[in-house]
Amino acid sequence: MRTTRRSWLAFLFASALTLGAGGGDAAADGKDVVVFAAASLKNALDEIASQWQRDTGKKVAISYAASNTLIKQIEQGAPADIFISADLDWMDYGQSKNLIKPETRSNLLGNELVLIAPKDSNVQADIRPGFDLASLLNGGRLAMGNVDAVPAGKYGKAALEKLGAWDGVRDKIAQAESVRAALVLVSRGEAPLGIVYQTDAASDPSVKIIGTFPENTHPPIIYPIALTKDSTNADALAFLNYIRSPSARPSFERQGFTVLAPGAQRS
After folding, report:
1. Edge-to-edge strands, sheet with 33-38
2. Which among 44, 210, 224, 198 has a CA at the least distance from the CA of 120?
3. Which CATH architecture is the domain 5-110+222-259 placed in?
4. Distance of alpha carbon 24 from alpha carbon 170, whole angstroms
């Protein structure tokens, strides 16, 4: 049975308070644009939403989580207007389930995958085929998003398999519910190493990048955006276009994202 819209609005309100999403308190009346966005977008998208409010006087409520979690919530009836995924697979899933408006879909951003450590760590990494990641962990665990569902976790597993390092660490993974949750494990010193996006590492001064995974070791990291099928908010398309406009570009680039032309693929 589909969850009611009223129940989902209550959930979104609680989530916005927990995550610090811009405009969450106003979402309860259903009039503001509601965005479900990959957790790694938080810093940039919060800034863009604030800028939109200054420019238009209109508010945006944003719920951040792993892409798989968000699209499943939309499938269950969550009243989102815009979905931004951290990979193509979960947007493809949404399209196959008739949860988005395909004509509004485009590829928004690119990113890089990196290996991080706490800022005071002495660990150094040379990411290349056959590198011994297990020894770098020194008995600790490797923080990653869930490798079967969270995009950053899937990218990370693919990269480690390509490099021949997966078998050595597969039993040493601390799997997190999102890439930002994996970041926190390293930031707090609860894991000696983690795999996150370059933009996540840049957002947290408590961690440092000790290596970047070559692009040829994992699928291209692409963030697609689309309106949801059930969105009836007249401002939703305007905000989607604002996200894709030159006005939003500096916010994404300051966080380290590559801004893609609509429909573009990363080489």
Report:
1. 60-65, 33-38, 82-84, 222-227, 106-110, 258-259
2. 210
3. 3-Layer(aba) Sandwich (3.40)
4. 38
Amino acid symbol at 191? A
In angstroms, the CA 121 to CA 144 distance is 18
Rounded CA-CA distance 175/143 in Å is 6
82 vs 16: CA distance, rounded Å:
15
| Tens digits of residue pLDDT in 39-72 | 999 999 999 999 999 999 999 999 999 999 999 9
Distance of CA 119 to the CA centre of its chain: 22
Contact 197, 209 (CB under 8 A): no
What are the structure tokens assigned to 21, written together? Answer: 């999403």
Residues of CATH 3.40.190.10 domain(s) within the chain? 5-110+222-259, 113-217
| Tens digits of residue pLDDT in 150-162 | 999 999 999 999 9
Question: What is the CATH T-level fold of the domain 113-217, as seen in this structure?
Answer: D-Maltodextrin-Binding Protein; domain 2 (3.40.190)
Q: How far is CA 101 from CA 79, 98, 214, 232, in A?
A: 14, 8, 33, 12
Nearest to 173 by CA among 147, 149, 212: 147
CA torsion, points 249, 22, 14, 255, in degrees to nearest 10?
A: 40
DSSP state of 248: T
This prediction's pTM: 0.84
Q: What size, in residues, is the chain?
A: 267
Between the CA of residue 212 and those of 48, 198, 216, what are the distances in Å? 27, 8, 12
